[in-house]
Design a protein that fits this description.
Two copies of one chain form a homodimer.
Chain A lengths: L2 H16 L6 H7 L4 H7 L3 H27 L5 H16 L5 H8 L5 H22 L5 H18 L3 H14 L1
Helix pairs in contact in A: 1-4, 4-5, 4-7, 5-9, 6-7, 7-8, 8-9
The first copy, chain A, binds a DNA duplex (30 and 30 nucleotides) through helix 3.
Chain lengths: ~170, ~170
DNA sequence: TAGTATTTTTAGACTAGTCTGTCTAAAAAT
DNA sequence: ATTTTTAGACAGACTAGTCTAAAAATACTA
């Protein structure tokens, strides 16, 4: 594995479990076993690593979600499976919530570069949910419940908001 | 105004517009025109200021909300006014979202002291919404939409998620 | 009301550490 | 021959928190 990948992998892990501001470059390069020179050879700043992380996370998260739904689409309706996916992610990632929303809270509100990446991720999610439910009367409603599910389960460190939302959505789509 | 109040007022303002981690003690004491000794005479750590801020914010936010509803209860149903209150707060505070959720994203996930303050704030909100709607079949549903409204309007820097949620809630309660 | 004791606030030096980012110069890989 | 990576020193600025010693404010008491 080349330095660039090691940096990105380590930074992603640290940003995700510690947060962006609490993760320093020195920690990244040490845990990635990379020289500081290589860090700044491959990335021009910490912010650029952040953006690279968000892009990678975007790809990984959507792929995982789509995979999950594809795998179980015989058992339940896709949109309901999306909520099961959240439950599974919370278990796997220990209720760390949404990387995008977490970083949104950490950056100064005038950082439009990062803000745009976050907004685009959520726009894609909103659109994807719309494509799953195929009913534009309720799709934003479901999107809002989906978002709530993520944040509230992070907040309470429990799955009840997701289960509650799923139950509501079940009624909404029938 | 005594030093303690000046510190709390300044810190609250800075935490709210810059975030917790991006606000240093030196900036707080300078903008509050207070000696560093006074800071540590009145608070034993930055974390304690954070908790004091959250408690003050909790009181202020709820009082504002209840005031708003009391003032306009003849025009519309209380629970719908709660959403109008969010719109007004976004205008007043420039879409900075929820201080509690913002700080939730900034603190290490093992900081149970701060986490508890945040959880209690949201528990109170959930309960208050329940008391407004007086229908435990939909009250959590509304709570989840309320939370989404705050975060998504912060994310998109726009009021549409609140307006959308309000419309949904209007149908839910009739 | 005057004098004393206690609490609070002041300015600022200081510690020991953190941060992002730059730079050099050599080694390794391509 | 060029690109990439290495180790690590270094800069300049920041961090939370401690400490000193004097001044100011407050409270207590005779």
């Amino acid at each position: 594995m080349k330095p660039r990948s090691r940096i990105l992998k380590t930074a992603s892990h640290l940003f995700h479990i510690q947060g962006y501001n609490s993760t320093g470059i020195n920690q990244i390069i040490e845990e990635a076993s990379v020289a500081k020179g290589s860090f700044y050879y491959n990335f021009k700043s910490k912010e650029e690593v952040c953006i690279a992380f968000l892009n990678a996370r975007h790809a990984y998260w959507f792929e995982s979600l789509k995979n999950y739904i594809e795998l179980k689409k015989n058992e339940e309706q896709p949109i309901l499976l999306a909520f099961d996916f959240l439950i599974e992610m919370n278990v796997k990632e220990n209720f760390r919530g949404c990387s995008f929303l977490n970083i949104l809270s950490e950056i100064p509100s005038d950082n439009s570069k990062i803000l745009k990446v976050i907004q685009n991720h959520k726009k894609d999610l909103r659109q994807y949910i719309a494509s799953l439910v195929n009913n534009n009367k309720v799709s934003d409603h479901i999107y809002l419940l989906f978002e709530s599910s993520i944040i509230e389960s992070q907040l309470y460190r429990g799955q009840w908001p997701i289960k509650k939302s799923k139950k509501i959505v079940k009624h909404l789509i029938q």
